[in-house]
Every structure is written in C-alpha cells, then in structure tokens.
Design goal:
single chain, 235 residues, mainly alpha, disordered C terminus
Length: 235
C-alpha cells in the first residue's frame, strides 16, 4: 500500500465528488418542469421537499432520485478506484472499519459538502439528506438503511420532514460507530457531516422550537398546480 497514492487518489476522488454532488438537480428540474426558479418560491431551498411543494410530486421524486443517485455513484466508484489504485484491489481496506477507511470518510464528507455548498450556486445549496442517504448506500448500506429508518420514525407520524431529517443526521455517527466500529477519524468525519446537515436545517430548528413549522402534505392550488403546505426540511 502506498500512502502517496492513497492520499492522491482520495483527494482527487473527493474533489470530483464535490463537483458532481454540487450539481443542483432540484433547481434544474424545477426550471425544466415548472419554468420556475425554485430558490424564489416556498422555502427557497433546491431540495426534494421544496421542489415537490413548488412543482409537484413527480418533480420532487425525480429530484430525490437524482440527488441520492449522484451520491451513490460517487462513493461507489470512488471506493472501487481508491482500493484498486492504492490498496491492491482490497475493497475492504477503504470501507468503514478498514485500515484506510478515512479515505472514504473524506469522499463521503465531500459529497454532502458539495451539495450543501454548491460551487455552481455561490456555495449555497440543499440540506444534504438525500445525497447523504445515496452516498452512504454506495459504500455502507447498513448505515444508509438505518438513516432511512430513523427518518421514517420521526417524519411519518409527525409529518415534519425537517424533524426526520435532523434526527437522521444526528444518528449518522452513532450508526456508523455502532455498526462498523471504524477508525476515530472516520467517526469524526461522520460527525462533521452530521453537524453540517443540522446547521443547514437551522431555520427549521427555530420554527420547530417556536411551533411554526408546517406539516408536509400535498394539495391543489387555485390554478390546479400541486403544492405542499410545509416549510421544512427540503433536502
């Protein structure tokens, strides 16, 4: 194993991941499907919830698929490339609990940071939940499923998408540690990701605390277009 090749391949994968995951699919889909700038309506966020609210369920689902998909592709390909280039093809070396798991921790963080701080939108973006789920699915699927369970447990009964998103973010380093017992660096990187996602939901946290957060549901507006009545948790 070459430390130089590991460092170089990790940094290159992280940069490419940041750029790919920064692609604002929600903004592009809302513009194409509804002819609107999703940043100027609803919560102003480019994620799934606000696209669903502003354009409709199908556009929201497509946004969710694209945001999760870009994370999935980036971590899946990165884990294969890094392990091949620097670890003699030993994929387990870069997965959580492996001797070089920090490398994929860096790539995972880059995926979420790219989405939240999109380089194409003056470093503004979404809130990181969908891309975080997809990126986790690419190299640590049990954690990804755990995040989904936590999200459903908190979001479905309350219909607060933001609450489910925040709870899932907080659970990320806990699930990563409990399932894999990875390196301390990997857990710290998951903690940074969790903090960034919670920070991205800071306005929603304030609304939840004040009792002002609206619950998610679809309804028809007077002009027949689908909308939703929530203000929270767009991803």
């Amino acid at each position: 194993m070459s430390l130089d090749s590991l460092t170089t391949s990790t940094l290159l994968a992280a940069v490419i991941t940041f750029l790919i995951c920064g692609i604002p699919f929600g903004l592009l889909i809302a513009s194409k499907r509804g002819g609107i700038d999703v940043r100027a309506v609803g919560s102003g966020n480019i994620g799934t919830t606000n696209v669903s609210r502003s354009v409709g369920a199908s556009a929201g689902i497509l946004t969710l698929a694209c945001d999760a998909g870009k994370g999935l592709v980036c971590t899946l390909v990165s884990s294969l490339v890094i392990s091949t280039v620097a670890c003699g093809g030993q994929l387990s070396s870069v997965l959580p609990g492996g001797v070089c798991d920090w490398s994929m921790g860096v790539v995972y963080a880059a995926a979420i940071l790219g989405h939240v701080f999109s380089p194409y939108l003056h470093f503004h973006g979404g809130k990181g939940i969908a891309v975080g789920f997809g990126a986790a699915l690419g190299f640590m699927w049990p954690v990804s499923l755990g995040l989904l369970v936590v999200f459903v447990v908190f979001a479905v009964p309350t219909r607060y998408v933001s609450l489910g998103s925040i709870a899932a973010a907080i659970s990320l380093p806990i699930l990563g540690w409990a399932i894999y017992h990875p390196s301390n660096v990997f857990v710290i990187l998951l903690g940074i990701v969790a903090a960034v996602v919670v920070w991205a939901h800071r306005a929603n946290i304030g609304k939840l605390m004040r009792g002002e957060e609206k619950r998610f549901s679809f309804h028809k507006t007077s002009d027949g277009k689908p909308a939703a009545d929530d203000e929270g948790g767009s991803r």
